[in-house]
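Posting this for the archive.
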Amino acid sequence: MNSSIEIGTDGAGRPVHVNVQELLATRLLVQGNSGSGKSHLLRRLLEESAGLVQQVVIDPEGDFVTLSDAYNHVVVNAGDYNEREIATMGARIREHRASIILSLDALDIEAQMSCAAAFLNALFDAPREHWFPALIVVDEAQMFAPSASGDVSDAVRRASLAAMTNLMCRGRKRGLAGAIATQRLAKLAKNVAAEASNFLMGRTFLDIDMARAADLLGMERRQAEQIRDLERGCFLGLGPAISRRPVSVRIGATQTHSRGGTHGLLPLPEAEPNDMRSMLFAAMETSPPPVPPPAPPPVAADELLRRISEGDDSTLSAPTPASVIPEAAAADIEDAVAAALRDMLADPDCAYHPESFLYQDFSVRCRMQRLARVPLDLAAFRRRFALAKGGIFDPAEPRWQEILGAAARLPDDMLAPFVLMARAAAEGLPCPDDDALGRAYGTRSPGRVRRLVEYMERQGAVVVRSDFGGRRSIGIPELGLSTEAE
C-alpha cells in the first residue's frame, strides 16, 4: 500500500510528498503566524490522507467541519454534549475507527480545554484491542498546551496540558499520531513541541520564534531571516516523513474550504448620514428605556435611632427569599454526601471520568438534595471519592480507622485500590483482580496496575505473594492480614 501523499511543490515545481506511515511514528509540528496558511496546510494533509488513515480533528474555530461534505468525517458539536458524553464518544471512536471533527467553536476557552482534555484522554485510555492507527490533528495547539498560565483555572490548564503531553509523548505506542499547529512556538509548551520529528515552518516575524524555528530546521541563525520572507501558503519542511534536508513547500489546492472563506475588501454600503442614523438609532428613539422605580424615602436619623433602640428593624432588614435553603444538620449533610457518592458509583464508567467532571456531577447531586452549599471542596472530594471507590462511604466509622491508618503513607490517588485490597484482607475475600484495581485507580492499562502494586510494595504498604499456580494474594503488614489467593 502506497502511503505517500503530495502536499505541494518545491521551488523548482517538483512535488513534495509526506510519508503517512512515517508520519504516524514521528508526529508533526506546524508553526506560522495568523494568516500564514496553517489551516490550509492541515486541510490539504487531511484531504490527501483521508483514504489512508483514521482522522480525528480538534477544531477550536469550526474551520474543518466542511470536510464532512466531501469525505466521511462525522462532525461532533461539543456544545451539544456534556463531558461524560464526550469521553464516551472518544472511546467509541477508537473502537469503530471513525473519522471525527470535534468542533469546539460554541464553547469558551476554558470549556474548550476541558472538553479537549476529556476527549483526548478517552482516546488515550482506550483498551489495547482498539489501538488502531489514527492521525490526531490539533489546530491552535497553544490554546490546549500553553507554555504559561493564563486566564483559565490551574486545574483546567493542567488537565489539558497533560492530555496533550500524553498525545505527543506516549501516543505513538497506542497508535495515536499528533499533528499540531500553533501560531507561536513560544506560546506552546516545550515538552509538547519537543516530541515532534517533522516540521513545517511558515511565516513568522518575532526574533525568538524565528530563532527557534531555525534551530528545529537545523539552519544557522543568519539563515533564519528567510522565515520572515515566506509567502502565505509557503512553508519550510524537514523530517523523516518529509525530507532529510530543509525543503521549501508551496501547499497545493484543496477540494474543500472553510465556512468563513477568505475575508476580502467589500464596498461600503451607500447611505446618507441621516438614513444611517435612523437605521442605527430608530429602536432607541421610539422605545425609551424603562423608568426605574422611585427610591424609598430616606429615614431621618432620629427616627432611625429610635427604631434601633426599640428593636424595630422591619424597615432595615431585607425580606428573606422563600427560595433560601436553611443550613442542614451535620448528620444530614453526611447522609447526602454518601448518597451522592453511591449514585455516582452506580455508573460503572465513572472511575474513568475526569476529576473536574466528577466534582461538577457531585455538586449537582448535592444541590438536588437541597443542600445550601457543596459540603466538600475539590481536595476533600478527591479523597472521599477515592475512599468510596474502595467501599468506604463513612470514613468516621471506627471499623475503618486501622485501614485508613495503614493507607496514610500512600498518595490520595492510590487510596481506592489500597482500601479495596485492605477490605478484602479484613473480610477474608480473594485478592481483587487487575480489572477491579484498574477501575479503582481510574485506568484500563494493565501495565499501570502492575506498576501501582509494585510501588505499594516498595513503600511497605503491601506484600505480594504468588503460588506455583500463578494465583496472587496480597498481605497488609500493618494490619497483619492477607487476602485469599486468586
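The radius of gyration is 30 Å. Residues 4-251 form a domain with the Rossmann fold fold (CATH 3.40.50.300).
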